[in-house]
Design brief:
heme binding; Cytochrome P450; binds protoporphyrin IX containing FE; 3-stranded antiparallel β-sheet; about 500 residues; heme; alpha+beta; single chain
């Protein structure tokens, strides 16, 4: 009897679970899209993976389910070049897809909106216009001497390793250099972490605080949990929230300091203030600090990761290293000829950089957007209003649907006239109105550092077996492993 009773209870339970799953699957009108059942009914898988391995998880889902995957109850992930254009680009007679709630977890959101997290397209356009004068070609030219000076400091410090015959950890030195560059170019503050050979105290935030933002993104998908965490501040969240507040206070202090010492130095703050003064615009200190915090966060580890990925793959392939060296050493007769103005058109160097950003997208999270009023088409499918969508930068650029031998580092694919790769599937700087405002600056930094490095030194990897992709951990941005090299200065 008890056997039949158990069977009956299980049957009823099974019926209700099945009914629940079917109802949840159909709730958002996305039941026709493939994906794991748990993702269709719960945010748990998305949030869990957001804490640890999101890009690699999404890459795996696309391999299993195809080019469109339902990754959360109300959310689809895409990988095609067309989806980049549909979701992020400008389309005639279409509304802009605004940023989704993932961006609410950024620094300063409790006080003010900023360029990265502003969701309203009209408000964002105003902010972008306000910051644009600092990122024009003219401004970049004014910043060239500042960039050159910091890169020369980096190369001089690295030369000491060559003299001492000790290996250097380029992962570390790239982060030190891009941090010094970002702070100097944003705020005019000198942090001298290259010379110190270790991160500036403020730079701690850029690993741990950014990681905290990633945790906040994961938690915010469960509003009750989010409230609980804010109220109880359990470790490590309590410490990380404190660190976020400290970072905000540091930014505000630095902006105040710079505002009380007006100078003609062409840093972002100076350029923005003078351009907007002419227009009669004024901004609160916390508003400016939020913008500069974004500029520093957005410009530091993205650039450092690109440098590290490029260096890793170049030093693990003798043919690529030889071709790159020949191009750089063939183009320049002396070190002093290498400058921000002369490194732009080295085709093989640019191909190496494009390939590094393809194989390891520096911004690896899904840049989520929301389908606007009355729904819209993405990749030919009409999606209901409010659906969350993204093209996954990591999965798209590493998909065999878009690239032949996608896990192979092959700069030549960027130089082939009639190659078969869908190069447009790799969009490391994003597309459309929210694309990277610092693209030219970031590329100038990367080109200059790599050109000077390979002109000055023969660079040799210490760990020939290092698996860069496996050892680089996702923590909203990437946490890089050590990249140890021997540097032999050329005579
Ligand atoms: C290799 C280097 C870089 C890469 C790959 C990169 C990538 C990106 C991407 C993908 C976005 C769009 C993010 C989104 O939609 O959520 C973005 C936005 C942004 N980036 Fe970069 N970035 C780099 C360097 C820089 C630098 C050097 C700066 C400034 C100094 C910078 C400042 C910004 C800002 C302010 C935004 C927000 C733009 C907006 O929403 O209007 N980035 N970046």
């Amino acid at each position: 009897m008890s056997f039949y009773l158990t069977l009956a209870v299980l049957a009823v339970l099974g019926y209700f679970i099945n009914k629940y799953i079917t109802t949840e699957r159909q709730k958002h009108g996305l039941e026709h899209f493939p994906g794991p059942t748990l993702c269709a009914i719960s945010h748990i898988p998305y949030s869990f993976h957001f804490l640890f391995d999101h890009p690699k998880w999404i890459e795996g889902l696309h391999k299993k389910y195809g080019p469109i995957v339902r990754i959360a109850p109300n959310e689809l992930s895409f990988i095609s070049p067309r989806s980049w254009r549909d979701i992020y680009g400008y389309r005639k007679d279409h509304l802009v897809f605004r940023k989704g709630q993932n961006y609410d977890a950024a620094a300063f959101t409790a006080q003010t909106r900023s360029i990265v997290n502003e969701q309203d397209p009209a408000e964002h356009a105003k902010m972008r216009k306000m910051l644009a004068p600092a990122f024009s070609d003219r401004s970049l030219r004014l910043q060239w001497p500042l960039i050159d000076e910091t890169v020369n400091t980096l190369i001089s410090e690295l030369a000491k390793f060559s003299t001492d015959g000790k290996p250097a950890n380029l992962s570390l030195y790239y982060s030190l250099a891009t941090f010094d560059l970002s702070v100097s170019l944003a705020l005019g503050e000198e942090t001298h972490s290259i010379e110190a050979g270790k991160p500036h105290p403020w730079a701690d935030f850029f690993q741990n605080g950014v990681e905290a933002m990633g945790q906040a993104v994961a938690i915010r998908r469960f509003p009750w949990l989010s409230k609980l965490v804010i109220a109880l501040k359990p470790p490590p969240m309590g410490g990380l929230i404190k660190q976020l507040r400290k970072h905000e206070a540091t930014c505000i202090e630095m902006v105040k300091k710079r505002q009380s010492n007006p100078s003609p130095r062409p840093d972002v703050l100076g350029l923005v203030l003078s351009a907007n003064e002419n227009e009669g615009n004024t901004f609160s200190t916390s508003f400016m600090a939020a913008q500069l915090s974004d500029v520093i966060i957005a410009g530091t580890e993205t650039t450092a990761l690109t440098l590290s990925t490029a260096t890793h793959f170049v030093t693990h392939d003798a043919e690529i290293l030889r071709t790159l060296r020949e191009e750089i050493r063939g183009r320049f007769k002396s070190y002093d000829e290498i400058s921000p103005g002369t490194v732009a058109d080295l085709p093989y160097l640019n191909a190496v950089i494009n390939e590094a950003m393809r194989i390891m997208a520096p911004v690896p999270w899904p840049p989520g957007r929301v389908v606007p009023m009355q729904g819209d088409n993405v990749e030919g499918y009409h999606l209901p209003e409010g659906t969350w969508v993204s093209t996954n930068p990591y999965a798209a650029a590493r998909s065999p649907v878009n690239f032949t031998s996608p896990t192979r580092f092959r700069p030549e694919r960027w130089l082939e006239r009639d190659g078969t790769d869908n190069l447009d599937a790799s969009q490391p700087f994003g597309l459309g109105p929210r694309a990277c405002i610092g693209k030219s600056l970031g590329l100038t930094e990367v080109r200059l550092i790599l050109a000077k490095l390979h002109f000055k030194f023969d660079v040799e990897a210490v760990d020939k077996e290092l698996d860069w992709i496996a050892r680089t951990k996702y923590r909203l941005l990437w946490k890089k492993p050590g990249l140890w090299v021997r540097l032999n200065e050329r005579t």
